[in-house]
Amino acid sequence: MRNVFQPESLPELWRVFEAHPGASVCAGGTDLLVKMRSAMMNPESIACVDRIPDLRGITTEEGGMLRIGACATHGQIVSDPAVRRMFPILVRAVENLGSPPIRNMGTIGGNICTASPAGDTLPPLYALGAEIELRCKAAQRRMLLKDFISGPGKTCLRQGEILASVRLKPPEGYYNNIQHFEKVGQRNALACSIASLAALLQVASDGVVLKAALAWGSVAPVVMTCPDAEKELIGKPLTSETLRRAAAAARQCANPISDVRADRDYRLEVLGNLLMRLLEVAPESAPARDY
Amino acid sequence: MKISFTLNGKSTEVDVAPDRRVVDLLREDLRLTGTKEGCGAGECGACTILVNGESRLSCLMLAAQLEGRCVTTIEGIGEEGRLHPVQEAFIECGAVQCGFCSPGMVISAVDLLGRDPNPGRGEIRRGLSGNLCRCTGYVKIVDAVETAARRMNAASDVKPDAGEKERVVPGAPGQGQRR
């Protein structure tokens, strides 16, 4: 039998960490309990962090930054008006994550700390240049999400430290432009992605791409960004020729694995093809999903 | 560890290992075997319950997490001697074959109709996308949820503010608060 702690404040959490350094953090439990059941993890005790107010809620801060508490569930994120208004790219990724009950349980902080190459929130958060806030008893630090995740399942989280929030800056001038996310999986719901793409584009009225941020999931040990592919888009009209060149650059940059879901060659094909969808994506819209 | 929570409208206290899975607490300890366990990994939805009015998977929750919360299982969806409109519609539409997925399906349908009283067929499929059925092919399940939605809306038109404040599980007795 393991102890299960449910601290209701950060000071209470620090006391749990001090007394039980081997405790695993449980936010939504959708990864932790699966890993415990399959004997991939066997923590001596569990600290549930979902009752800590400092880790919850979605708020707009000074300077227009949006703070998403690490324990905000995917369901809360999808239904938050500010997220929906400013970050449709994140909404599109989260609304197809798992299933309705998984979205009611799983949290953005859990998705980040699990650091799966297939984590659905990660490509949009990379494209948005998300910053994260880490807290421990004595200190607080911030870093870019891309610097936090160091490998599949690996992060720079220190002993006694917790991911407290994600901070997003509304993409300047990206309004009315393209915020696109698409995941390819074996089915539409409850699918671990075979490849996914988050694309944030600013397109001028003459159709020329002014800014581009691209991030792929499931095609490398961590989320892949590819400045070479972005360079192929910037300064050019969004034509199939432009996108084909960007796709070729992205394939050069990727290093996918073969696994139970798809083999390497399929992933290389798909990760480039995902870019071609940008031709069909009118501003503020996404491909319809047919269930 | 003693845990106090509300189960199907009744205050409940159990003495249980804090890391016992909720599905085991419900089925093995409390003998509420309506909740099923399929995969044990969050992929099939058979173990879906409502916690504070939201659908959750009882195979991915620890008993300790129920402290102070409000749980509704399939046993508490209807009233004594009267099925919930979703359950009635499942029977009438032939949405049940082997029945193993049905408790989870019904709970997910109730959760969906609480958020969206007028879902189209696409929204119904999306709302039930976490629940696997290997018998029906889903068509009759979607029919049943459409039928239930129609009836529940007709019933609430007759009594416009009946139980609006209290309503947790649409169409069923109030149990705790939703969202």
Overall description:
The complex is a heterodimer of chains A (291) and B (179). By secondary structure, chain A is an alpha+beta fold. Helix content of chain A is 31%, strand content 23%. Chain A has helices at 10-19, 32-37, 74-78, 81-86, 88-94, 100-105, 108-114, 122-127, 145-148, 227-233, 240-253, 264-276, and strands spanning 3-5, 24-26, 45-48, 58-60, 66-69, 131-135, 140-144, 149-151, 154-155, 162-168, 178-184, 195-203, 209-217, 224-225. In chain A, strand 6 and strand 7 (140-144) form a beta hairpin. In chain A, helix 10 runs antiparallel to helix 11 and helix 11 packs antiparallel against helix 12. Chain B folds into two domains: 2-76, Ubiquitin-like (UB roll) (Roll), CATH 3.10.20; 85-156, DNA polymerase, domain 1. Chain B has helices spanning 22-29, 85-93, 102-115, 121-127, 139-158; strands at 2-7, 10-15, 48-51, 54-57, 70-72. In chain B, a hairpin with a 2-residue loop joins strand 3 (48-51) and strand 4. In chain B, helix 2 crosses helix 5. The longest helix of chain B is centred in the last third of the chain and has 20 residues, at 139-158. Chain B is globular and about 45 Å long. Mean pLDDT of chain B is 91; it is low at 162-168 and 173-179. The interface between A and B is medium-sized, with 28 and 33 residues.
Keywords:
heterodimer, A: 291 residues, alpha+beta, five-stranded antiparallel sheet, four-stranded antiparallel sheet, disordered C terminus, B: 179 residues, Ubiquitin-like (UB roll), DNA polymerase, domain 1, 2 domains, five-stranded mixed sheet, 5 helices, 13% strand, globular
Summed up, what is this model?
The complex is a heterodimer of chains A (291) and B (179). Chain A is α+β, with helices and mostly antiparallel strands.
